[in-house]
């Protein structure tokens, strides 16, 4: 089983091993069952270790030093599940809120890391988790227990489990029964960076939180144990299937997106990235030499094309081509492909249009976010092609109702599914956020100031693209009815103009023209 796990890990070099893949392994099942047995004794802890495992992996995902080391990630998942296993052997009196225990009970409570490590020592397959269990109550400044280790002498796994443990204690089973919202919980943890927690781990925790990774927790509701268990398994099955069968995003697109995040590269670098995919490079040259650009002489190399047309224009074409290719692979033969692809192009063109004047965000970034905002729908199509196609075709403008139907059909709505995939593909936070919150932009506040503009842009673009019209009055009506009041308030506060029917009609003409141009080129 373990060697199978290793083989799978090697195979998916571009995609991460998901938590779900890891939890399907035998030692992980043992760990899960053990932790459920212990949590069964302590009502306030139900679901705790499962959530800690998810937080810990989200933190690990943000740390360069761990990156894609599947062994380490596996150990982190297991150690998180088992970190409090020693509580199973404590007397009832030592199981209450640690901050309210008497002296005697507290000293009993403080033995649980050592007892836990002893329990696990008996099981060879779980031996790698011992440092994570034994040291999860150590503090970075050396004031923790059981040893009082300091700084990097505390094993990394334990430093991660400690921070993940804190997120859950503060948000779900908070000390003194006071449960905090994620903003306040994260703030509290940040204040303890360098004291209680490893500052590097705290940084990773903050960036995972900004991407919404602590919000999308399948074990999030402290429900009845059996119900929770059934639910996780049901959802896990579907995720594992999807990860296995979804084509990876083309490497070229990944690199182009990465470069967008990191800033400008030299023309030769970009030409090299594109040239890695010969078919793509040929298609780009065909576009460059088409009537659209009307160049007098023929361009035969990418560096020349880039010099003449500029990197931004080329990048847009690369994105269009790559994403179309990805969608075709997943859904090309399905009847709803055309309407999904048209919607993607329309939303991309609208995003670019709005980016310029309404939200002060980068036009290229807006275009990409608009293009891929419904990637979760493509993934859902992979999951249930026929049924999902019917859903796409009968979709009305009511996004909330649509998401509810998706949840019923696929297990998750397309914003959850899409952002989860974008996150595992390591796309920039702005794109993950735009995908996650394009139907509920008000919720993007958890991800911070930086993503508000792009989320709002894609939200409005999606509403306008769904209207399928160039009629300014109809667009203005759609804007009034379907654009989130939160976005309207944002526009007012930031002194942007609320577009009226005339603005929208003029913009729609440019958008429709742009979409036609792109279609002709592809
Ligand atoms: Fe603990
Ligand atoms: Fe959507
Ligand atoms: Fe959409």
Task: Offer a few descriptive terms.
522 residues; mainly alpha; Hypothetical protein af1432; 65% helix; binds fe (ii) ion
Would you give an account of this structure?
- The longest helix is centred in the middle third of the chain and has 23 residues, at 337-359.
- With 522 residues, the chain is mainly α.
- The chain folds into three domains: 2-245, Hypothetical protein af1432; 249-321, no CATH class; 332-521, Hypothetical protein af1432 (Orthogonal Bundle), CATH 1.10.3210.10.
- Mean pLDDT is 78; it is low at 1-24, 174-178 and 218-234.
- The chain contains 28 helices and no strands.
- The two termini are 46 Å apart.
- Helix content is 65%, strand content 0%.
- Bound molecules: fe (ii) ion (3 copies).
Structure summary:
The chain has 28 helices and no strands. It is mainly α and 522 residues long.
Helix content: 55-70%
What is the end-to-end distance?
A: 46 Å
Element pattern in H and E: HHHHHHHHHHHHHHHHHHHHHHHHHHHH
- Low-confidence runs: 1-24, 174-178, 218-234
**CATH hierarchy class name of the largest domain:** Mainly Alpha
Count of discrete domains = 3
The CATH homologous superfamily of the largest domain = Hypothetical protein af1432
| Largest sheet features | none
Total beta strand runs? 0
Residue fraction in strands: under 5%
Q: Which whole number gives the mean pLDDT?
A: 78
